[in-house]
Predict the 3D structure of the following.
Amino acid sequence: MFFLFSGNAERSHKITAFRTLTFLGLILLGVFFSSCSKQEEPQDSFNIAVFVPGVVSGSPIYEMLAAGAQSAAAEYEHVNLNIIEGGSNQGEWEEKISSLAATGKQDVIITSNPAMPGICAAVSKKFPSQYFIVMDGYLEDNDHIYTLRYDQEQQAMLNGHLAGLVTSSEMEGANDQLTIGLIAGQEYPDMLDLIAPGFLAGAKAVDDAIELDFRAVGNWYDAAKGAELARAMISAGVDVILPIAGGANQGVVTAAHEAGIYVLWFDANGYAQQPGTVVGSTSIQQDTATYDTLVKAIEGTLPYGEAVTLGLESGFITFIEDDELYTSYVPEKVRTAQNEYLEGLK
Amino acid sequence: MSRLLHSLYLIVLFIVIIFTILLLISPEPVMAFEDFVTGPFSNIYNTGNLFAIAAILIICGTGVSISFQAGLFNLGGEAQIYSSALVGTLVGLALPEGSGFFGILVVIIISMITGAAIATISGFLRYRYHIHELISSFLLSGGLLSLTDFLISNTFRDSKSFLQTTSKLPESFYLPSILPPSNLTITILIACTVACILWFWLYKMAGGYEMRVFGLNKDFAEFGNISSRRYTILPLMINGACFGLAGALMILSTQHAAIVGFSAGYGWNGIVIALIAANNPIMTIPAAFLLAWVETGTRTAMAGSSVSLEMSEVIRGMILLMITLRFFKNRRSRS
């Protein structure tokens, strides 16, 4: 960085200015030539962009999305995969996904989130030739967008049934009060219309007197707020909580562990989060679903415009029963009842 | 000459730093670098967005320049943009659907008043109680940001949306776009006009002269019968109004609804722009383009190759660091 400390004399200014300009020119020339000499990509290459509305690490559903896309891309030589993280500023997602579409190089953009169908539809208006796949979202009748969602109501019912069994059980942390808790990151249509009612319906299948305490953190990252809400619930008599609040889940687990009550997990195997505190976990096979969908997209057989809902019978939603932490911490009576309910739903 | 040289150093340093970082972090550094440099101009969408971002940055930077010229530090830009954008959006939603031009004007004016009012509180506290505006504006901003987050995600939330956002404004409130499909609207013209007007006021009119004198030496200014009340409050008011305008324009041109955290960063970037432009409103225009280029460049590099979100933030942070280093170097040589 010699040029930073050069003297003030007019002559040395001119020399450094010349040097600097030459350097700048050389760089620009380099860029120019490298872009000229860049080989045109072969016609038959297939480019997939994975747009993650958030960050991959720490979010099971996005980790599965990335893993599924990677294994699909690995099967084909001509497929290029590019994973882009959109960050947590929701106001920027549309712009970022638009700038992906604007390159015109992506054969398909795949993303995952219930909010993304709306955003992709808006981008699709601006870039009508771009194809999109939205996992975990739902939108019908846009012939450039394929959506696939999981039956979250069924999934919530499975969680709810176990919650009902736990709160009415003789387990150490369970109290006499028949109240179960649900802590959401925020209130959104699927949460209010499917997950919360499903969760309560599952619990009511055990005992009709069970009540639901529902609260929202207001964001998907604030673990302190999650813990605060969980403590408030616990003091109100809740003895089992299902957190669906992203990073705030950790706060809920901590608070529940301190108070000796129970937590259920949604979307991925969560038993290891806190053995003995997390006593139930449903999971969705987003990695397999992503893989299957992308393979169809690469083969050219994906029916864009369709909106698919995968339920229990498809195998893409499961209640994880074979985990050692489940079998060792949950009494057999509860496990048997949960298994009967699971089989009954299929 | 010396100034031009400094700018040249800066650009070369940018390039060296960006390339070094990319070399370390990206599997394809040459391609990533190319995306970074030429990406913003690779298609109409990116170019339009570069102008759209620059427009907002010009307004923010110009506002900050005014308060810096008066020797005042307004660190509350983040909330002044965000809160006034929310107020503007709510007013827009309350107006009849087909309000069109009139509605746009009302939204802009209300947002500017809101921004100005927030900033004026700090000015008043400074003048009346000698509470430094640097701390009061910052603390006030911290509170208002949380309050605005809360209002958007609870009180005024659109329950039909999956995002944490208010309802969308009707289409008659959208500013006319210039380079579809990009986000560029007539904001760039408004921004340049604002910068020119404030430059004219600052350097060609008595009020601006008095304010600059006040900024350079308060005792001398008072000796010359320049009102210290006026020039403690007015610059912050102008600054706040500019931030309010920026917030309103972001809503009217790009977002069309107040989404949680949508304007994050613009308040701080306004300060950066003012620093690069040496507090000259006209110079905020190239400075804003420089920063907008960095912003769009990081986005295209991210879209085109494997530069992660965090790393693009690192690159941007490094560049801002370089700029501030340069600023302090100038400061030192001046004193």
